[in-house]
């Protein structure tokens, strides 16, 4: 059987659009490593000021990815200017309140793209781990307090914890080793000075052994797919192709999106943002345009620029060529819940489309590992024996580059909150 038009053979000469963006993202982060560390410290200090007044700021979008795999001098200068602007907005964070504060914080999370094409060099360049089901949130411990916020920027919890700088009772200077995390008591049961228990997720090299462990291994939490992390990636705010979500029915209850009643709709649904000119765009930067609403419908429905709108897509309503959108046939359903912060990303729309028509199966991933040609050298990543194993130092810096700042300590965590069990499951961590 010939491969589906959305699926290329494992060994291919042309690289996918997603792969081009991965290469560009790695190039761009090399330009902004120091700036991102400074920005993270600004975010942490802003949270403290923000909690004393109501909420937090709004930062501009991440720089636009170029279609080429190289940045010219003009592009580099533009990105430097945007880095400075982003740091400035972080310093203004404590002055924002309410919706503006939530919007700013919603843009501080690193959001993975959905895997629509298997990356090359999976074994050499990628980690894999099970993705816990639950509420994704952004956790910052700094200045003696710990705060968590949901993806949409809403404050979830404000509490003392045993995370570094998360409680005033202790001082911590080292946080990049799993054993040190265990020593802090972050894994301990809830107590007066440690209200929520933190647990961690095992990370594996993405070889045959690691992929099988993440995909089929037992976990103390419910899985919601797999997450793939590029070993060279830094933690950066916004959507990134250096982290990828993948699901199938064996490792997730929700491969296809569900409606408000928890049912899978007969037709795929997408959420898009309405622009001033009536165009309907994704949350990508730059956005992908799916269509346009005429002015009469916008006025009749009272739709404003920036509104998030839901559409249904007919079975033959999307046409793609080389993974790029050519045409769509959509029907307007209505506005989405106001608590939602973003439109769908292009990779999510494409993943949902392929999941309905020609899913990217686990067999494709396994065969991609074999095609890398380095299986004789594959090794497994051992994990420390704690309740779950933390994902540490995804920036893959030498330890000499990860020395903690004596004067400023801020730890950022991407966590999954389990309210009923008073537990946070750490799935990302970056240390500054």
Automatic annotation (TrEMBL):
InterPro entries per record: Snurportin-1 (IPR017336), Snurportin1_C (IPR047857)
Entries under SUPFAM superfamilies matching the protein: DNA ligase/mRNA capping enzyme, catalytic domain (SSF56091)
Functional note: Functions as an U snRNP-specific nuclear import adapter. Involved in the trimethylguanosine (m3G)-cap-dependent nuclear import of U snRNPs. Binds specifically to the terminal m3G-cap U snRNAs.
Protein name in UniProt: Snurportin-1
CDD domains according to UniProt: Snurportin-1_C (cd09232)
Places the protein is found: Cytoplasm; Nucleus
Keyword hit for Transport: yes
Gene3D superfamilies: DNA ligase/mRNA capping enzyme (3.30.470.30)
UniProt key word Cell division: no
Gene Ontology molecular function: RNA binding
Stretches with biased composition (Basic and acidic residues): 75-92
Family note: Belongs to the snurportin family.
């Amino acid at each position: 059987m010939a491969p589906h038009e959305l699926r290329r053979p494992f060994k291919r000469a042309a690289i996918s659009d997603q792969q081009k963006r991965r290469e560009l993202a790695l190039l761009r982060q090399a330009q902004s490593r120091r700036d991102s560390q400074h920005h993270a410290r600004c975010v942490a200090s802003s949270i403290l000021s923000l909690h004393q007044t109501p909420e937090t700021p709004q930062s501009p979008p991440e720089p636009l990815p170029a279609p080429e795999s190289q940045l010219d001098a003009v592009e580099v200068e533009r990105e430097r200017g945007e880095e400075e602007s982003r740091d400035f907005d972080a310093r203004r964070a404590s002055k924002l309140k309410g919706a503006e504060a939530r919007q700013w914080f919603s843009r501080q999370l690193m959001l993975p793209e959905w895997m629509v094409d298997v990356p090359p060099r999976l074994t050499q360049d990628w980690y894999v781990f099970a993705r816990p089901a639950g509420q994704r949130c952004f956790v910052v411990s700094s200045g003696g307090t710990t705060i968590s916020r949901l993806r949409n920027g809403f404050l979830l919890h404000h509490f003392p914890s045993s995370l570094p700088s998360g409680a005033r009772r202790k001082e911590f200077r080292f946080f990049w080793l799993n054993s040190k995390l265990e020593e802090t008591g972050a894994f301990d049961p809830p107590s007066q000075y440690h209200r929520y228990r933190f647990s961690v997720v095992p990370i594996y090299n993405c070889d045959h052994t690691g992929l099988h462990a993440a995909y089929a291994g037992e976990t103390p939490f419910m899985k919601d797919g797999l997450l793939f992390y590029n070993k060279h990636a830094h933690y950066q705010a916004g959507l990134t192709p250096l982290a990828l979500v993948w699901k199938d029915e064996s490792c997730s209850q929700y491969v296809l999106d569900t409606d408000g009643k928890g049912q899978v709709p007969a037709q795929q649904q997408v959420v898009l943002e309405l622009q001033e000119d009536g165009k309907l765009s994704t949350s990508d930067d730059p956005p992908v345009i799916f269509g346009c609403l005429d002015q009469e419908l916008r006025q009749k429905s009272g739709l404003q620029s920036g509104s998030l709108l839901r559409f249904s897509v007919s079975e033959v309503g999307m046409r793609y060529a080389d993974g790029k959108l050519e045409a769509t046939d959509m029907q307007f359903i209505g506005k989405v819940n106001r608590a939602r912060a973003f439109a769908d990303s292009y990779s999510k729309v494409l993943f949902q489309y392929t999941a309905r028509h020609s899913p990217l199966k686990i067999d494709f991933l396994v065969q991609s590992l074999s095609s890398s040609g380095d299986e004789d050298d594959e090794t497994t990543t051992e994990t420390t024996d704690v309740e779950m194993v933390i994902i540490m130092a995804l920036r893959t810096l030498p330890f000499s580059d990860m020395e903690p700042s004596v004067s400023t300590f801020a730890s950022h965590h991407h966590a999954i909150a389990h309210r009923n069990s008073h537990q946070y499951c750490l799935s990302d961590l970056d240390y500054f």
